[in-house]
Amino acid sequence: MKKIIWAAAASALFAGPALAADFSGRGPYAEPGFMPAVPAGVWSGFYLGGNIGLNFASRFSNTAKYELGGASGFTGGLQGGYDFQMDRFVLGVAGDINYSSLKRTYNDTLPTDIRASMNWNGSLRARFGYVVQSNFMVYATGGYAFGNVRMTDASLRPMTQTRMLSGWTAGVGGEYAFSRNWTAMLEYRYISLGHGNYGDLLEQPRVGFTGHQIRTGVNFRF
Fold first, then answer.
1. Which residue of 13, 31, 41, 105 is 20 to 30 Å from 134, comparing CA positions?
2. Which whole-number Å values give the CA distances from 31 to 11, 19, 20, 24, in the listed order?
């Protein structure tokens, strides 16, 4: 009889904690709390794509007495780069080369016929992004910019000169991943190119360029 009593007491002793855990709704070990998933590194790697857009409120500035004024036009080209994602932050480098239809003409009664145009432009930039959700990123970008500015004097002594001007660009944008490898982007940038000497033209002007650009495009991520 004593053996039976001691066995029952031992069973109750060791079964108590387990039953208490069952009644409390918890196991012997606490379950880990829920932590929101950190976005996977979907933005890391190389990419290549195309874009179209608009140059607006742009200006060919110069040191001569004639005023070339504002200009606007179509732009389109290719872009590529590399991004590296760290948690929700993305660091990258980006470059682009674009065709441009920017042009502006000055006429008066001298006669003077001065024409300015930019046929292509590009940039090499850094990108700093933040992943709002796993398939959407916003970013700031800035760096080196360049473009060819062609000046033509079509008056009494026709002459054309082309210079590659360089300067800086900065802007903001967003990029959305709509499939595993494809993303869509929308970007605004301000562009400022320094002045170049056009000594073969009337009054030998120094000509520069400033302007705004907005573009959209798609990228394929490798």
1. 31
2. 27, 18, 16, 13
Cis peptide before 205 (omega within 30 of 0): no
Tokens for 49? 């794509």
Of residues 205, 59, 42, the one with CA closest to residue 133: 42
In order of 69, 123, 129, the CA distances from 105 in angstroms are 9, 26, 40
The upper half-sphere exposure of residue 72, i.e. CA atoms within 13 Å in the direction of its Cβ, equals 5
Q: State pLDDT tens for residues 104-133.
A: 887 665 656 788 899 999 999 999 999 999
- The angle formed by the CA atoms of residues 182, 185 and 187, to the nearest 5 degrees, is 160
DSSP single-letter state for residue 199: T
